[in-house]
Model the fold of this input.
Amino acid sequence: MKIMVVGGGGREHAIIKKLKESEKVSKIYALPGNGGIAADAECVNIGAKDIDGIRDFAKQEKIDFAVVAPDDPLVLGAVDALEEIGVPCFGPRANAAIIEGSKVFSKNLMKKYNIPTAEYEVFSDLDEALKYLETAPIPTVIKADGLALGKGVIIATTRDEAKEAVRSMMEDKIFGESGNNVVIEEFLTGPEVSVLSFTDGETVIPMVSSMDHKRAKDGDEGLNTGGMGTIAPNPYYTKAVADECMEKIFIPTIDAMNKEGRTFKGCLYFGLMLTEKGPKVIEYNCRFGDPETQVVLPLLDGDLLEIMQHTANGTLKDAKVKFKDMAACCVVMASNGYPQKYDSGFEITMPTDKNIYVAGAKLEDGKLLTAGGRVLGVTEIGNSLKDAIGAAYETVKTVKFSNAYYRHDIGQKALAAENA
Ligand code: AMP
Ligand code: GLY
Done:
C-alpha cells in the first residue's frame, strides 16, 4: 500500500518507522518530512498546512491511506478534504479536531458532560477578565482559546502577572486571533500523565501511559518547550487510576463527542493531572503527542497500519492492540538556546541502526545538518525504566553535533516515584 504521512517532526518520524514494520506497506511519502525522515520515507515539499496541496498530491499518487499527524492540518480540515476524494485517513475531521483547536469548546464540553477538569471562566472582553482577576484565586492559569504552538498557556503566580498575561493575549494579541477568547482556570497540582488512545468513536483503546518533560532545564527549571524527553509507562498511572480514567474521562469524552455530532476518530490524547480529588483533564489533543509518540510506538507490539485502518473503518473493536511489558525513554537533543535563540546548520553524525527520531534537520550535499530547536530524539527500550534510561543516555553519547543540548534527568522523577 502507498501511505502518506502529513507532518515533519520527531513524532512523524516515529510513526513512519513503525509503519515501515508493516508487511502491507510498500511506499511511504512524508509531507513535508525532514532531512532525517528522508532515510525512511520519500519527502515531498508540501507544507503540512497546505490542504489543497495535500489533497492534490494524494489524488495524483493514488494514495491508499493517509495519516495526518499535526494539529494544524487536522483543525484546518485535511481529513475532510482527503475523505472527500475517497482517501481513507487516520485522524479526526475538523469538527472533532476542535477538541484541541478550541479550549473554550473543550472546557464547555467537559462541563456539560461532567468530565472532571479545572474550574474555569471564559472571557471575550478584556475589562471583564481584568475585573475577574481582582478576586480570582492565585496562582491562576490563563489559556488562549485557539492553537498557539503549544505556548498559549500562562501560569500566573501573582495578580499582576495574571493581568499582564490577559492583556498580552487579548490586547497585544501575542497569539493572534487565538487570544480573542481566553479561559481563566483553577490552578491544579499533582503528577501529570499523558495517555494517547486509539478511538473510532465507539471503542477507545488507551495506549501505554507516558510522562513528558516540558521544561528546558534539569530539575524542571527553565522555559516551557515542546518537550525535552519522555518515558513510558508512567509509574503514577496505576491500574486503579487507569480504571477510573476509563470510566470517568475516556468513555464519557467519546460519548460526549458523539452526542455533539462530532464523532472523534484517530488518536485522542488525554493530558491528565492526578489531583488529590482524582484525575482531571488538563487538555485534550486531537493527535499523537510529541515526544510521547517516540516512547509509545516503540513499545507497541503489533501492526500500526492495521490498527489505524481499523480506527478509520470503525472496526477498532477487532484490532489487536498490545504493548510490550517493557519501558522506554526518549531523550531530546536540542540546539543550545532552544526554546529561544539558537544557531543551526551543524553537521549531525549518528548511528543508523537505532531508534533516533529526527525533528529539526535538513539534508545538504548529502550531509545531515541541524535545522531546528529540537533536533532529534533518542529512544531506547529496556526491561525496566532504569535500563531504558541508561541505554538512552548511552546512545546519546554516540550522536554528535555542535551546540547540542539535552537534559540529563529525563525519567528521574519517574524512577523516584517507582521506588517510593
Ligand atoms: P498545555 O500547553 O495545555 O499542554 O499546558 C502546558 C502545561 O501547563 C501543562 O502540561 C501543565 O503542566 C500546565 N497546566 C495547564 N493547565 C493547568 C492547570 N489548570 N493547573 C496547573 N497546571 C496547568
Ligand atoms: N507533548 C505534548 C504535546 O504533544 O502536546
